[in-house]
Design a protein that fits this description.
Bound molecules: flavin-adenine dinucleotide, iron/sulfur cluster
Family: Belongs to the GMC oxidoreductase family.
GO molecular function, one term: metal ion binding
Shape: globular
Number of helices: 12
InterPro entries: 4Fe4S_Fe-S-bd (IPR017896), 4Fe4S_Fe_S_CS (IPR017900), FAD/NAD-bd_sf (IPR036188), GMC_OxRtase_C (IPR007867), P2Ox-like (IPR051473)
Distance between the termini: 17 Å
Number of domains: 1
Cofactor: FAD
Protein name: Choline dehydrogenase-like flavoprotein
Number of strands: 18
Structural class: alpha+beta
Strand content: 15-25%
Amino acid sequence: MMLDGGRDLEPGAENRRQTMAATDPDGWEPAARADWMKPQFTAGPGQIRRYGSDFAVEPATAILCDPPSWFGLRASRARGGLSNLWGSAVLPYARSDLTGWPVRAEELAPHYRAVAEFLPISGRADALEMLFPDLPMTGRVPIQPAPQAAELLRRAEDRTDALAKHGVVIGMARQAVAPGCRLCGMCLHGCPYGLIWSGRHALAQLQALPGFDYRPGDIVRSVAEDVDGAIVTLETGQELRGDRIFLAAGVLETARIVLRSQSGPGELTLRDSQHGFLPMLHRWPNRTRPDRGRFHTLPQAFAELRAADMSPHLVHAQIYSWNEHFPRDLVDNYGRVPILVPLLRGLARRLMVAQIFLHSDHSHGMTLQLAPDGRLKVGLQRNPETDAKLRAAARRLAKAFSALGLFSLPQALRIEPPGSSFHVGASLPMHHAPQAGQSDLLGRPHGWSRLHVVDASSLPAIPATTITLSVMANAHRIATNAP
Ligand SMILES: Cc1cc2nc3c(=O)[nH]c(=O)nc-3n(C[C@H](O)[C@H](O)[C@H](O)COP(=O)(O)OP(=O)(O)OC[C@H]3O[C@@H](n4cnc5c(N)ncnc54)[C@H](O)[C@@H]3O)c2cc1C
Ligand code: SF4
């Protein structure tokens, strides 16, 4: 039995999607293309919108009481959750980042493999494979990189030694995208063809299984257990009984449900992977206009930085080539003098951006408490080294990227608000001997035996590389091993 928020794309938006998907991108009218993008451009600050809809993100005030302006994380009550919006970048955690974890890399490895069997993963075997042996890429098919990215990847392959001197490895991005990408460039607006993987897709397969009971709209308020089994109480007050509960409501809702359900610790600490955007200009000339033709706008390349003097953990960067946000952002920020606008649009065609992520040890934390009205109250646990670490990482990467012909602007690094990476969790971290506020190796919070927390909340920490594949692998491990 799966209880779920279950919100869906509104019928009007779904009809628009189907109309777009019925035609090859070359057949789209320019106005249809512009209309598909427009709602995303008009989204408010911090609001993530896809398919012209807000169905997949709850407003901050739905979950939080007095949400602070610096807090970038949001919850979802959609069918498929935030995977309706995500960037689909996938990597396992590097084994070196699992050192000291109560769950060993060898124990997680088979579950990465199991997830990689049903999750479509695009990409190819390249230099990154040495760092991430738990996601072998042989036999996978890459999405054709955009021309700027293809040139960058070609240069990275030629200059692996120069990169290695800076502790950097670069390879093609791995994306959870089904084969057949139409290179329509709408990735940041909702894939009209539904090729970017979403939990909705897995759910549709599960629903075809006999005995699988999906209950959209059954919002969970709290959980409990007794000698006979586990009990879920819905917002309606209805109680449902079962043998055990696997809780994966996204880290905010999971925290809220756990805090409402137990008399234990009144506060949990959420750990974040802090991120920032590093702008870079490529020195090589464009052979073709990067804003014309067919291309995708998901992350194009991954760069991993290992710098032991700076951190024992990997720094992860996702590199984007031209997308329609580049000229808009440049003109919005610097285009007050109209004569500059064409210049800025031209500059945008040389722009590439690295989204840099830090390990949670170097990032701010966030405290979560239950407010009297049942929502969460969030506080900032400031890490004094975060900004300096991110700037140092940007400078290191900038030096390495310069060997590829990229002129980086570390002084223009845009540091994003805590939580806004959505690479967040470890609020009930697994531990060999869990205390209050921790869970055991099967995700059971201290004192519980039938409740398994299987989303990012039970990860012991948040390494810098992408989070979702590891959350899925850990959930698969717990579900496989649960009594
Ligand atoms: C813009 C964006 C880009 C991202 N890009 C990437 C990326 O490139 N790579 C990556 O690894 N990660 C990325 N992420 C993060 C990724 O989307 C999340 O890690 C992932 O979706 C978390 O999955 P989850 O199932 O744990 O939680 P969610 O996606 O939050 O899903 C929660 C589920 O629980 C249900 N639910 C919630 N509350 C209740 C309740 N009270 N009762 C019943 N059901 C409930 C919801 O309906 C939903 O089905 C991105 C996120 C965003 C927003
Ligand atoms: S380019 Fe992006 S939006 Fe277009 S088909 Fe490929 S994945 Fe989907």
